[in-house]
Amino acid sequence: MKVCIVGLGLLGGSFALAVRKVVKDCTVLGVDVNEEHARTALERGIAGEITTFEAGIAQADITVLATPVDILASQVVPALDLLKPGAILTDLGSTKEIICQKAAGHALRGRFVASHPIAGTEDSGPKAAFEGLLKDKMMIICDGEYSDADAVKTIEGLYEKVGMKIVYMPAKAHDSHIAFVSHLSHISSFALGATVLEKEKNEKNIFNMAGSGFSSTVRLAKSSPDMWAPIFSQNRGNISQALALYIEKLQQFKETIDADDQASAHRFMKETNDIRRVLKGDD
Amino acid sequence: MKVCIVGLGLLGGSFALAVRKVVKDCTVLGVDVNEEHARTALERGIAGEITTFEAGIAQADITVLATPVDILASQVVPALDLLKPGAILTDLGSTKEIICQKAAGHALRGRFVASHPIAGTEDSGPKAAFEGLLKDKMMIICDGEYSDADAVKTIEGLYEKVGMKIVYMPAKAHDSHIAFVSHLSHISSFALGATVLEKEKNEKNIFNMAGSGFSSTVRLAKSSPDMWAPIFSQNRGNISQALALYIEKLQQFKETIDADDQASAHRFMKETNDIRRVLKGDD
């Protein structure tokens, strides 16, 4: 089987490493416009060979788009145009509605399986890739009813082979929920980092006072702007709603603090402690 | 040496476990108004015996106040009143200005060493305590110039024995900085948890979509309201400033998203990526 990975960063690279490990007789064709990334991917055994977008997709049985979502959205139609008969296109983008819209109406729409793995770290590029990133993680397949049944089955099989659990969801619902449970976390973290950097700009050693709590909440502020700016743009309607509600909660909490209303602050926290139960899946 | 720990929760309990490990011929006298906590502390070997506030402090060489900061502030004067000649009082509270004010003017002010360890987890109570919590962590000693030199030296020695690194800071500066690098993280996390719980209240399985990024940013929302409500109250001036700046950053980011201004969003994130260098201490 020939798998073409377009975009050899953290996700594409990790997926390639996992696929090469679990699929017998698999050739990974790597595509990346960044020559240094392509070289690193070859050296690290992410791709067996480096090729072009056109040549890679034209010979692949499965093509995986793993570029930043602005580029990814622009690659869906050209990639579908290049597929050989029976081949399949999938993607790993963090937004799904715009990407699915790009494929809509294409004669080969059925060969496209839109997906989003709930996996990542604050690092990026092929050096950050590792074989285990996707193992035991969730893969969300969106708008699967527009994909050919055999294409969905093949892609599911491949994702399951690398250890992922599959769930299904309409692209619209995906983008709305992911704004709250992923995209908002990144913005809360970036804003926290920006706030503390501004306050402490002349007092670098203050960061010695930062413990594991700060590290944990600010970790995502190390994430790649090249990856995240297009995600925020494509999902801006949902993110704007999530941010508005988040700011409202913060303002509400600030009012209880300014009024020294400890009972209300306590209640706010106590109710939110429910996140412990919910994250455990303990309904 | 007799050490009396008042408040056998995560911090007091962990400190007791560490002290019992590293100090030879040490008796830990435990005090806790919560009888179940006291029993757990005995069972877990946190305290060698359980006693009362009065009896414990009266016989201790070193007393450590490790209660929530509202209770802690009310215990400073009674504890100083109970100290035997030459004994020392210290504390592990997350706020320092109000606690130091309570001790100010007391005849035995010199026997008090105010301190704050940069350590903790989202869990609380004696069950959450563990011997290694304070190892390699920072201990901030505040307003040390008001403490007797021998008292500071003894307390420093004890903290160093459990593996902590000591830094010195005025209480006022401590409270201002800690609002940004610790207290704000907790509020950002509580508000994030509250936002997502409100949005997804009827769709619990949406939390399956939450990855490690969400878990990391929302972790502190599991923290104890009993511990945090009094901290937010005591440090509300500084926290209000921190929150105002944080909300401003979020609003600024929301505007770039609403305007689909990707260049500004990219710049905001790129500048904030500096947190990676700063947290590494890599100036």
Task: Give me some keywords for this one.
homodimer, 283 residues, alpha/beta, Rossmann fold, 6-phosphogluconate dehydrogenase C-terminal fold, 2 domains, 8-stranded mixed sheet, 12 helices, 53% helix
Report on this structure.
In chain A, helix 4 (69-82) runs parallel beside helix 5 and helix 7 crosses helix 10 (236-258). Chain A has twelve helices and eight strands. Chain A has helices at 10-22, 35-43, 53-59, 69-82, 97-103, 149-161, 171-199, 212-218, 225-234, 236-258, 262-272, 274-279; strands at 2-6, 27-31, 49-50, 62-65, 88-91, 112-117, 138-142, 165-169. An eight-stranded mixed β-sheet of chain A has the order 3-2-1-4-5-6-7-8, with helices on both faces. Chain A folds into two domains: 2-170, NAD(P)-binding Rossmann-like Domain (Rossmann fold, 3-Layer(aba) Sandwich), CATH 3.40.50.720; 174-279, 6-phosphogluconate dehydrogenase C-terminal fold (Orthogonal Bundle), CATH 1.10.3660.10. The termini of chain A are far apart. In chain A, strand 7 (138-142), helix 6 and strand 8 (165-169) form a beta-alpha-beta unit. The model of chain A has no long low-confidence stretch (mean pLDDT 95). Chains A and B meet through helix 7, helix 8, helix 9, helix 10 and helix 11 of A and helix 7, helix 8, helix 9, helix 10 and helix 11 of B.
